[in-house]
Fold:
Amino acid sequence: MAGVSLKKVKQEGGAQDVGEGHEAPCEDTWGIEVEPGEWVRTLNSMETVFAWGGRHGCFNTVTTLWFTSPLPLHPHLIRHALTLLAQQVKVLQLHVSWRWLRLWFRRMKHVIVDFRVDDRAVGEVVSDLVGSRYNMERGPLWRARLVPLPAPPDRHRAVLVLAVHHTITDGLSNMILSRDLLHLINTTLLPHGPAPTLSPHRPIITLTNMVKPGDWPYILSILYKKMSTSILTSKNKTIYFGGALPCPSASCPPVPPVNRFLHTELSAATTTALLAQCRAAEVTMHAVLLAVAQVALVRVAGRRGGVDVAGTEVTICNCVNFRRYMPPHLAHTPGCFISLEDREVPASADDEKDVWGLVTRLNTSLRHSLGPGRIPVKNTPLLRMITLMVVGLNRALARMNRPHRCDSHIITTNMGNLSELLPGTCSAGPVQVAHMVRTVSSEMACNPFMLASHTFRGRLLLSLDYYTNKITPAAASQVFYCFVSMMTCLGNHGNLTHDGPDADTTCPNAHHDQSTFTYTTPPQDYHAFNNEQYFTCEDDHDDHNYDKYNYNHDHNHNQQDLP
Structure:
């Protein structure tokens, strides 16, 4: 199909919520090569799962961007940039409809920009968007809120909360959307600046089946395992370490589950030290994150339960960018193209003392799984069926006020080093992104925690999403505190035994979604979402040339969910 030039679109909705119509100054780039109102393609496995969850207010992705600029960040400027983005990035014009007993993407007849200014605290806005519902059949499947912040005399500051449903996006797409939006804001801010244009990205209209006949014995074995451990029986006793990690008590009447999250960032010095250690050990940062998360989880469970949890299998599920198996020219294609890779590693009492040994084993296993093993490819035929059954079962259990089924301890999403994909600065203008946080609502999924990570402007950000129907806030805070303390100790001392952290206190450097949870006695250095420290990177940021090897062994995968 030949590309089509971008046409002027009609806007619908109120003046406050919907941007004004603008003629796009550049050609179609992320091009969905069909006319408005026409069908695009069927949904893949993960897109189908996310679309089903979207009907119940689940699987919303939220990217929170802290903007700083010497020029005013007026709402009409942000609205104009969002309108241009929606016109040029056709993924933002998609909705989901039934056709021939299958779910299809369909392009909306008109571009709608759901944008407004919100004067509430940033945490409240994020909480609202991450738990909001979309009309999957009508669209749009995204929305944005601008939160103005007090500014010093020489700077203007604001926070943009960009929510896009997982059906049409993933971690990579959200980073590209953020980068392109920053570019559009900068080019439209300057009165005589260049016409705003985006880099071309080739869409995927047809999906290729990569599963080979020899893969089916593995697929059927995994199907049997998932059915026996997650559907027909419960794995919760293993996931909660025999009750050492508390599952919230049932309430009457049932209370809807809430997605909450803790986040913090390591210092530039600690991040640099961790990267240097990864380089020396020839391992990826992701392997380090997996190893430390496992040790922290086992330590907290052991101390809370007062029992020896050594030998318990810790199951960690990794989100993998499926574009790694596609041709290079599709590396930045828009949409949701992820798969899953999970691993079960027996906990050992020696893991904490010899954490680098655990890191090396995990790194070797990951390389084989993502490379010759092709586990994410082999898992694709099962994702739709298994996930829909588990998510559907969890929704039914929620209505009956029963505990959810879980089949993994933690799911991870790692965007690696964003120095190239989303550097935070733009040569076209003065607006910068000083800080960025990602979160996803997955309260109906099969895990009590989601660990998100990325390195932005020289600092490693760590975020732990948890769900009130699966884990208590106190236990989640302890797990996160122990994890962050261990990561800091590893970066500063190269091991986990130097002045070992105490897992029985609240994480002192974590920022908590205070709209849904507040500490009984907040730590002295407790920070809200709009704390000043989020803007310090523009003053002390150095353009470190990090070796990409620390995040992956293949430079083509530097900006993927799982390096």
Remarks:
- Residues 375-399 form the longest helix (25 residues).
